[in-house]
Amino acid sequence: MRSLKKIFSKPRSEPAPVQEIPITEVEVTAESKRAGEVEPIYVKSMELNSLADVQEAADELRAGNIIILDISSLMNHDPQELKQAIDQLKGICRGIGGDMGRLTETKVIATPKYISLQFRKPAA
Questions:
Q1: CA geometry: angle 73, 94, 115, nearest 5 deg
Q2: What is the predicted pLDDT for the residue at 119?
Q3: Which positions ≥6 away from 55 have C-beta within 8 Å?
């Protein structure tokens, strides 16, 4: 009978040695984002004085900000350059999925992806 107990019983063994798990410390900085935190969207005002300003506006749009452009100085100095700048901005807006429209004679608004413009149709 003892021989059957030896066959079916669990062998007595020494407990497995406890292994140490290395601890990694993580440094949390003020710039770290919390899970689910949303980046703010800014509405920024800019003057469009030359074609060089188009790049700055494009960078703001890619960052997710809304741009209100004052085009009065370029309109008065070089209407052809203004047309070229507006065409470039329209292309950038389309490329990132944004929108662009005129607010007044001297103000234009450009929006990034997920922000669409809707203007009222003029009364007939």
A1: 85
A2: 78
A3: none
pTM for the model stands at 0.66
Q: How far is CA 88 from the centre of its chain?
A: 21
pLDDT at 69 over 60: yes
Residues 62-75 have a mean pLDDT of 93
Of 49, 46, 104, residue with least CA distance to 81: 49
According to DSSP, residue 43 is labeled E
Please tell me the distance from the alpha carbon of residue 45 to that of residue 68, in angstroms, as a whole number.
5
Contact 44, 67 (CB under 8 A): yes
Domains of the chain: 43-111 (3.30.110.150)
pLDDT(22) > 80? no
